[in-house]
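Entry 12.
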Amino acid sequence: MTVTDTFDTVDAVCDYLLIPWPEVRPPLRRLHAAAVALGDSPHADLLRMDACHRVRLAQDSIFAAASDPVPAYARVVEHAAAHLETAAALPLAVSAVARDGDGHTQQDITASHYGQLWGGFAPEHYFDEATELLRTRFERNGFDLKRAAHERVLDCGCGGGRYSVALRRLGFGEVVGVDWSVQGIAVANARVREANIDGVSYQTADVLALPFADDYFDVVFSNGVLHHTYDTERGIGELRRTLKPGGRGWLYLYHRPGGLDRLTHYLARLVLKHARHEVCRRYCNALGLAANRIFFLLDLWLTPIAESYTPDEMDAMLARGGFERWRRAQRGSDQDLAERLFQREPFADAKYGVGENRYIIEA
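Predicted 3D structure (tokens):
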């Protein structure tokens, strides 16, 4: 049984995320109660999605200011709750939109969810953005690319393959991407064919039971994947098993404490816990949001499992997983939370908590 998949209350979410501000809990509870009161219909799901998006957009404005974000955040949540309370008094239309996941495992629901999100990425976001993000993260944290040409890399949980391609473009000799999503692997294969990229291959596989021999890869890479599985620690163990002695890797998992930024995501998870995924995607498409923006919103909001870890918990899991050395990346790309903390953005701790759990790991 996972932790986050069982959350049914605001207090459970706040306790899990180590939220230290009691003044934000009453408006959060009001918003959640208003969302539940809408009932179960596609129209209600649309209103819930809109409320979450309103909070997210307002958060961006709040964070752009140099003042304490907590009071303004509480007010924004109050306004979103009032909007839903008004909507609850209206006759909500009922239409036939199927509910996602009936009769499927969490693993299959997750694969389908991401499979719906990857295909629409514009070339500049799929190819160029991913490459430059990864290049900056590597360079700013001393992840040496000079020996990359002689290294075989595993992209564990490659999704639609954009980071697999980025790794190849950064000079790695061979990249093997694996993912459970058949849709994701299809997107990945189509992209490398269209762009005539060699040295990258893909296969459908379970990241918790990798189909490779021990000590097979020079580098293991897993970017925001294992926290969506039912056993993150087992996935870490698989990375270690398939990594050669003396090999290295890059691992990213969700973090806590996460500040207001993480709170917005987990609030949306709570509000949209039983929402129809198709309705949420239709909402984003109706607004004309770019595919990378839709991914950013729905990535964490709709996945069945989304665990987060403190730095101490990360240390313990890496040790139990068999890694001998690791260090937490202190910097990131300009848009990363860790970089904003590093640059001492005003009230960064309140906004971003401890920043992303990105680790350089060694066998």
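Annotation: The longest helix spans residues 42-64. The two ends are 30 Å apart (CA to CA).
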